[in-house]
Design brief:
- It is a single chain.
- By secondary structure, the chain is of the alpha/beta class.
- It is built from six helices and nine strands; from the N terminus they run βαβαβαβαβαββαββ.
- The structure holds 5-O-phosphono-beta-D-ribofuranosylamine (GRF).
- 5-O-phosphono-beta-D-ribofuranosylamine binds at residues 8, 10-14, 44, 88-89, 109-111, 124, 177, 181.
Length: 211
Amino acid sequence: MLKLAVLVSGGGTNLQAVMDAIDNGTITNARIEVVISNNKDAYALTRAAEKGIENVCISPKDFADREAFNQAFLSKLNSCGVDLVVLAGFLVLIPPEMIAAYRYRIINIHPSLIPSFCGKGYYGLKVHEGALERGVKITGATVHFVDEGTDTGPILLQKAVAVEDDDTPEILQRRVMEEAEWKILPEAIGLIADGRVEIENGKVRIRRSGI
Ligand code: GRF
């Protein structure tokens, strides 16, 4: 059974999608050990509490400096015996020591088709504003492993979503979540939990059933 830590900062709809997938048997070999937020008001914490999942806030505001905060975060993950860290709308930069300690065991969901509209400055609505400004006809979401760069790690899954003429950033954000993020994040966790994911020369290879 793969033990997950889900890291959140906000509403937690991606966390909800993962919890639902575990409940309805789409994900069979994983369970959420802990949900950690950097923001005490994140509704994601309430979602976890309602499911009886351990939920904690570790905020940079409660520590003397970033180093102390990073240490506390890593200690918490280590003490929970976590196998996979899932960044589900987590808005804090992951420190290099955590990336090294959890090499290829941290995944992130990004609301575009990487390498478009990703990297520094592309988070939240800014991703969708960028897509609309450029006038792309297709966008989507990407689940990728986290490495030392911003959105540069090996790509695990992507799903395309159509852009409509009258989209606002908010409308597009919602469509990308509904049609892509809430599907590929649970799917990626299921594939990892089932031992179907390998990384070869910096690229992900997925062993599908029956192959
Ligand atoms: C999602 O759009 C995700 O891709 C982005 O932040 C948002 C999180 O939403 N990184 P939620 O907290 O899961 O509802």
